[in-house]
Design brief:
single chain; alpha+beta; 12-stranded mixed β-sheet; 8-stranded antiparallel β-sheet; 6 helices
Length: 367
């Protein structure tokens, strides 16, 4: 018995010690194979390990576990708009089904299946975003044509020989220094994704398939399931958007701290910069904004005092600044405005503070 346990414990080390051999592919060829892999059907088990270190804000409680700690994922994908991802924990599981434009979410703790009917224009990050296959494709898309692509030595991932691709953002203003992706060279399916901040030898986020292979849809795996005693509720994407559904509509300039505003799916969400060098500005009504600032300060964020642009020594507002290897944020409450602003994204704290000062200057004349 003990000998059997010892063998099982050694299997991961033995697998990693097996020789690795991959066909010669250029970085550009591997990138194209990764993008083309979206059309493939597969199933597997993956784990994401994140260490963002952002303060836990109750308004974003659904996101915090994804950015700090291990997320265990069971994945089935028939196509880009037909898939299922189960998030597994000691307390149970939460399953997300994507069926065309409709989404279903099963919560085993509440014994509740929720149907979200209609395309989600905007939403908070979810566990399915951390699956290596979808994460890699999103990062490649965000990096854009100006990113630098280089090859990495092959390595064994999920029992397969994987070819490596390193992506460096074109802009030095991005908090992301490098994205490393290892993919099956034949299919292009990403097996391992690592995201590094500047000056760090360890990834701030790593997502890896431990097991993955071809899969043909069968047995109703993609049909949302619930027990006979479970509840069901239907809602719209807007109603399911959590903290984003009550944002205030405000006017902001076309440029903040040198970052140009980009098209946004909602007028309440302002996006500046692009790709891996972008941040969003959200405005929260008084009923939520004051609590957001208080929660940030209570969680250890650095307090921020903004001088009035008039230069008369008065205070234009107060706020909080928090940073992590990849994501920084500023919460800003202005004296002249009833709303509270949240600036959050993949740019430095200094850039976000400059943007906050620009918001102060702009709201002085545009209320």
């Amino acid at each position: 018995m003990l000998a059997g346990v010892a063998v099982l414990c050694c299997l991961p080390a033995l697998a990693s010690a097996l020789p690795v051999s991959t066909p010669n592919v250029t970085p550009q060829q591997l990138e194209q194979r990764i993008l083309a892999s979206q059309r493939l059907s597969f199933a597997g088990y993956a784990e994401s390990n994140a260490n963002f270190g952002l303060p836990p804000l109750p308004a974003f409680s659904s996101v915090t576990p994804l950015l700090n700690g291990v997320t265990r994922l069971r994945v089935w994908q028939a196509s880009t708009d037909r898939w299922r991802v189960d998030t597994l924990s000691d307390a149970g599981e939460n399953d997300t089904y994507q069926l065309g434009s409709d989404t279903y979410v099963w919560d085993s703790g509440q014994q509740l299946l929720t149907g979200i009917f209609g395309a989600e224009t905007v939403r908070l990050p979810r566990a399915a975003d951390l699956v290596p296959s979808s994460l890699a494709v999103r990062l490649i898309s965000w990096a854009g044509a100006g990113a630098t692509l280089t090859s990495l030595p092959p390595r064994r991932v999920a029992g397969q020989s994987a070819a490596g691709l390193a992506i460096s953002p074109a802009s030095s203003q991005s908090t992301i220094a490098r994205v490393d992706i290892w993919a099956a060279p034949g299919t292009g399916i990403p097996l391992l994704v690592q995201i590094f901040g500047h000056g760090s030898a360890a990834p701030a986020l790593q997502s890896q398939f431990l097991q993955v292979g071809p899969w043909t849809e069968s047995g109703g795996v993609l049909a949302p399931q619930r027990g006979p005693a479970a509840g069901f509720t239907a809602t719209s994407p807007a109603s399911f958007a959590g903290v984003l559904k009550n944002l205030a509509t405000v006017r902001l300039p076309d440029d903040l701290a040198g970052f140009e505003r980009q098209p946004s799916p909602l007028p309440q969400i302002h996006i500046y910069g692009s790709g891996l060098t972008a941040f969003a500005v959200l405005a929260f009504p008084p009923s939520q904004g004051g609590q957001l600032l208080s929660d940030a300060l209570d969680a250890g964020a650095r307090s921020l005092t903004l001088p009035d642009p008039d230069g008369d020594g008065t205070t234009a507002g107060t706020g909080a600044v928090a940073g992590a290897p990849l994501v920084n944020l500023v919460v800003l409450k202005l004296s002249r405005s009833p709303v509270t602003y949240l600036l959050v994204g993949l740019v430095s704290q200094a850039s976000l503070e400059q943007a906050a000062n620009a918001v102060v200057a702009y709201t002085r004349f545009h209320r």
